[in-house]
Amino acid sequence: MDSSTTAPPPPPFVDPRSGFCPSTSSFHSLRPPLPLPVAPALDVSTFISSRPHLGTTALIDASTGRRVSFSSLWSFVDALSASLSAMGFRKGHVVLLLSPNSLSFPVVSLAVLSLGAVLTTCNPLNTPREISKQVADSGARLAFVTPELVHKVSDLGLPVVLIDEDGRQSEGGQRVVNTLSEMLRRRPAGSSRAKDVVYQDDTATLLYSSGTTGASKGVISSHRNLIAMVQIVLNRFNLDRLGEQRFVCTVPMYHIYGLAAFATGLLASGATIIILSKFDMHEMLLSIGKYRATYLPLVPPILVAMINNADKIRKGYDLSSLQWVLSGGAPLSKELIEGFAKEFGDGVGIMQGYGLTETAGVGASTDTLEEVRRYGTAGKLSAGMEARVVDPDSGRILGVNQTGELWLRGPTVMKGYFSNPEATTSTLDSDGWLRTGDLCYIDDDGFIFVVDRLKELIKYKGYQVPPAELEALLLTHPLIADSAVIPFPDKEVGQYPIAYVVRKPRSEMSEKEVIEFVAKQVAPYKRIRRVTFIDSIPKNPSGKILRKDLIKLATSKI
């Protein structure tokens, strides 16, 4: 493999403080340049496996304590790749992985990618109908499935490899063509297996967006996209210089957050990934002490739960090894960051990240304690990324401290949406700029502040009301645990804001109190007109509010 790397020179006349370049009307990353391999023929698995590091243990199963060394991991990946090749799988063939987090998840992912085959993952909670739609859309030829989930693909006519970590077999007449353990144990004879040349521009993954603002779409990411993502993750954490680090994997590996950081990114540094098969607060906290975890990646709702149960956590669990909490999915408020520091001490820092499936999970981040204290920000642009802030109505490109839609361009931006040229054209322009759909501004120091989702703005008498602003305000009330604000249709004003509120335990806060609390602090057009109390706010795996579910609930009685 050609290991030479290159980094593009910085553009001229970039403001060293904000990153804004008047000649390009763009913001440029203030991070150190991103070194990327120049060899055209290179797959992301080879890129990861070829990186030198001092790590010994790659994976730990949190519930059983089973460990997989780095040497064993790459031996498994090579064996599975050989078995898939012997079965006739080649570059471009799509393989479905339907599984919760497990030791097998990175093995299957990396083996598929090493062949140049295309990996598509699926939420284990999806219904058979939803899975069938994804299989049909992606053209998947094979599925890796756990015994508990194999019934969900039983009517698809799709060959199945059973992920049988505990030796269980499937029941009934499923088309099980093999088991993972058998494929790892019986490596095909000979070393002359067929393997196509994989290029960086070849498609690597086909991940389906959550569909929070419309129909779910297949996001095409290349090996180049994933290699850039891995390099950004490595540069961000400086893990090569920090000695052995351990990350607790609380987020789902089928999602870009989990897949980018754990199944690929962090393994390249020699870090150990402690895997929870599903999120459980007790198991997560127990694992931190048992395996001396140093990093805890999570989504905001988990952070809120930790703050709300701080007394029990401090008394019942050992968190002394923990150095950093990594939050993604939505920006954290000042109250949450300060609340966490108050409850768990200043010894644990909080880093934030911003990204989309369409950008391989990266885009901006806070990387130091100083940056974290810039409350409410999504961070500074990731290495190698450019941004524009564009007026969504006129298309005019804006400058520092002006609010508009965030556009991103860089080495992690997707190739497009699979078999959906219309959606691709409306999201990705001919110059490679990705319209994120997020309303934001970038301040004098290059920090990005996401105001709201462009499509989620509430239009009250022509005024734009950002739900996120009202939600952040509601969370400052000592009796409110969580909140969501949505538009409610009205013939006279167009839409007005209504709130779903989760009260803290033993709180008897009334609807009138909530409405008055907000009314005292916002302009009249932003006032909340109605409040519904609810046990929990529906959110997707990355912590984003599922507003469409709440809108459906609110409007069902109209």
How would you portray this structure in words?
With 558 residues, this protein is α/β, with parallel strands linked by helices. The protein has two domains: 44-442, 3-Layer(aba) Sandwich (Rossmann fold); 458-555, GMP Synthetase, Chain A, domain 3. Helix content is 27%, strand content 25%. It is globular.
Provide keyphrases for this structure.
558 residues; alpha/beta; Rossmann fold; GMP Synthetase, Chain A, domain 3; five-stranded parallel beta sheet; 16 helices; 31 strands
What fraction of residues sit in β-strands?
Answer: 25-35%
CATH topology grouping of the largest domain: Rossmann fold
Number of domains: 2
- Mind telling me which CATH architecture of the largest domain this is? 3-Layer(aba) Sandwich
Computed over alpha carbons, the radius of gyration is 24 Å
Instruction: State the shape.
Output: globular
The span between the termini is 63 Å
Q: Low-confidence stretches at least 5 residues in length (pLDDT < 50)? A: 167-173
Brief digest:
It is built from 16 helices and 31 strands. By secondary structure, the protein is of the alpha/beta class. Helix 2 packs across helix 3.
